[in-house]
Amino acid sequence: MSRKSMESPVKRIRKAMASAPPAPRHRKSAAQIAMAGSTGDESSHEDIARLAYALWESRRGQGGSPDDDWHQAQELLAKRG
Q1: 3-state SS string over 29-70?
Q2: What is the C-alpha end-to-end distance of the chain, expressed in Å?
């Protein structure tokens, strides 16, 4: 049996966590993301996705839908621009 398979699951998880990149210390709010955005005329897919995710997080994943979040993010970014 290999040494790796003999390791406990806890040790494997700790090793994986030790080698993982650090988590961001501060997440931006939906408002901060909407105000920052991109400099182009149209909001990028990434800007919309980031804001939609922030909207989902702000309501702690309760209610709503991914489509609603996406459309709301597009509207907020369009108003900003």
Answers
A1: CHHHHHHHCCCCCCCCHHHHHHHHHHHHHHCCCCCCCHHHHH
A2: 60
Whose CA is closest to 78, among 46, 50, 37? 37
- Residue 43 tokens read as 């909001």
In whole angstroms, give the CA distance from residue 70 to residue 56: 10
The structure tokens 């369009």 sit at 78
Q: Are 56 and 73 in contact (CB under 8 A)?
A: no
pLDDT tens per residue, range 7-64: 777 777 677 666 656 555 556 666 666 666 555 545 688 889 999 999 999 988 888 8
| Residue 31: both structure tokens together | 């408002």
For residues 58 and 29, the answer to whether their CB atoms sit within 8 Å is yes
